[in-house]
Design goal:
The structure is a homodimer. The first copy, chain A, is mainly β. Chain A has a domain of about 80 residues: Ubiquitin-like (UB roll) (Roll). In chain A, a hairpin with a 5-residue loop joins strand 7 and strand 8.
Chain lengths: ~130, ~130
């Protein structure tokens, strides 16, 4: 798959990438891509990101096996965000949950865990 | 609703906010919130953002009427992204579609429109 024309990267050369389970619609994670990560994602159909904290390209699941297989890619109106519908192997979250969004905000500001745990993060610490 | 402790704003004081239709699971948009936008969203149950281009607080639908009613808020593992499940009045996208992600990337890099148009953007140009 080729990179569409007119993508708008931010001042750090990044796009926001939102990742959704293609079957259930569950929001799995939000991360960032530079042009290389986007190119590799489109070429391989395996999701690659750019890690802002580690400042490097990051093939999701490279060490953990928690690969994300691309099924559909959508762009938003501004072309600065990308929606990737995937099939997730294992869990998206390094805390061991299927989704990174595994906590609900309660009215008092506390967080309630509401997510499916799929692996022990102490054994698979590389997301 | 109170702001949870430990939110992680980026160097511009912003969080990523992903917005999903609470009933259908459709991804509607991605935008940014500063602390004030988050506080107003939690206090009023109407989604507020911070516009990076206009550099100001932005109550979604203030002029167009395309209000977003908060039904659930989730945080990701890093607390630098927020998932808001909403009921959307009208459309989320200033191009007139229900979702900003109304274009699918084809294998040759071209974009195919695949979205529900709900209003004429020439008449409602303020998202």
């Amino acid at each position: 798959m080729k990179i569409p024309e007119g993508m708008k990267y931010d001042e750090h050369g990044l796009l926001s990438a939102v990742v959704q389970d293609v079957n259930t619609g569950e929001l799995l994670m939000l991360a960032f891509m530079n042009e290389e990560a986007l190119r590799l994602t489109l070429e391989t159909n395996i999701v690659h990101y750019y890690s802002r904290s580690r400042k490097k390209l990051w093939k999701k699941g490279e060490t953990s096996g928690h690969i994300q297989h691309v099924k559909e890619i959508r762009l938003d109106c501004d072309q600065d965000a990308i929606l990737i519908k995937i099939e997730q192997v294992g869990g998206a979250c390094h805390d061991g949950y299927r989704s990174c969004f595994y906590r609900v905000v309660e009215s008092d500001g506390s967080l309630r865990v509401d997510g499916v745990k799929v692996f022990d993060p102490n054994q698979k610490y590389n997301a």
